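Reading is simple: each integer encodes one residue's backbone shape. An example follows:

___
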Amino acid sequence: MVQTPAPPMPPMPPGLDLNFLLNQAMPIVALIVVFLGLRWVFRTPVGEALAERIRTRMRGGARWAGGATGEDPQRVAALEEQVSQLQGQVSELAERLDFAERLLAEQRGRKLGAGQ
């Protein structure tokens, strides 16, 4: 069997550079591939899990560390009690601060009055 040489490639039209066209088309092709890949991932169970986590995070329901989505009524009541105690302590501290500020202002007034 005798091999014949392959016919020569036809010449490119003037002004048309195939490498230039491929370099220009590659980013578009890559973008399409990435888009299709992401679309495929989001349709898998992994994508559904990601979407559910985003939904619950937006609602503010689930905790990342705890992972519990249901609220325990006893825990909520205990936390509410703690919050009310802390609010009482903060208001008591505010009254004490106000009292100390008044005493300091009084002392400063006496010093200024005695110095004149």
Observations:
- Residues 17-61 form one domain.
- The chain is about 70% helix and 0% strand.
- Residues 109 and 115 are 10 Å apart (CA to CA).
